[in-house]
Design brief:
Elements: E1 2-5, H1 14-20, E2 24-28, H2 42-45, E3 54-59, H3 64-71, E4 77-80, H4 86-93, E5 98-104, E6 122-126, H5 138-141, E7 150-153, H6 161-166, E8 171-174, H7 189-210
Parallel strand pairs: 1-2, 1-8, 2-3, 3-4, 4-5, 5-6, 6-7, 7-8
Length: 211
């Protein structure tokens, strides 16, 4: 199970996630979001030894200027939550950055929209609420395409990750479910630790059962 945690604070949360081996660390650049970070904080991210972790800039309809000035050279991926087309994704990739395209799903017919984004390195199936903690419809999870290129977001937690994994999901994206119940945008480090412990437990169980 590959794990991406989104909406991280550049000082408070990064080292913990690197030490726990979180695969992708997401940083939000969207002023309307309570998880939005300051552009000056990008300098702080440069100080980390990322080890095996990758950094993701989470954006909505980013401009070429933003991508060239702030994303290229500082992040491994750019995540796109806007109205980007296949052509736009191709343009962004040509600048030298890998892409994650978020695809909003509320009913089965939306799933095939991923076929419009063959240029995206990763397709992220998400709920319409974007940053709001809306659970992904369980009856649709089994209909999602499978493979390393596809990820799932939508109220994933320590409590349901085992069942989600049984449905074939191998790449998950979390944010609000790992935050303090009393403060939006503030990550709860105990929740992060417990979630990664659960993921590692599932990996070990799968490895043991296959021997």
């Amino acid at each position: 199970m590959k794990v991406k945690i989104c909406g991280l604070h550049p000082v408070r949360d990064v080292q913990l996630c690197i030490d726990l081996g979180v695969n992708l660390l997401g940083f939000v650049f969207y002023e309307k979001s309570p998880r939005n970070i300051n552009l000056n904080d990008i300098e702080k991210l440069k100080k980390y030894n990322k080890k095996n972790s990758l950094f993701v800039a989470v954006t909505v309809n980013p401009t070429d200027k933003f991508i060239k000035n702030f994303v290229i050279g500082n992040f491994d991926y750019i995540q796109l939550h806007g109205s980007e087309t296949e052509k736009r994704i191709e343009e962004i990739k040509s600048m030298g950055i890998k892409t994650i395209k978020a695809i909003k799903i509320s009913e089965r017919l939306h799933i095939d929209n991923y076929k419009k984004f063959n240029e995206a390195d990763i397709c992220l199936f998400d709920t319409p609420g974007m940053e709001k903690s809306i659970e992904f419809p369980k009856e649709l999870i089994s209909s999602l395409p499978r493979g390393r290129r596809y990820a799932l977001a939508g109220s994933i937690s320590e409590e349901n990750i085992e069942n989600i994994a049984k449905l074939g999901v191998t790449f998950c994206d979390l944010s609000s479910s790992l935050e303090l119940d009393t403060q939006i945008g503030y990550k709860d480090h105990q929740k992060i630790k417990k979630f990664i412990e659960k993921v590692n437990e599932l990996k070990n169980k799968k490895k043991y059962s296959s021997n």
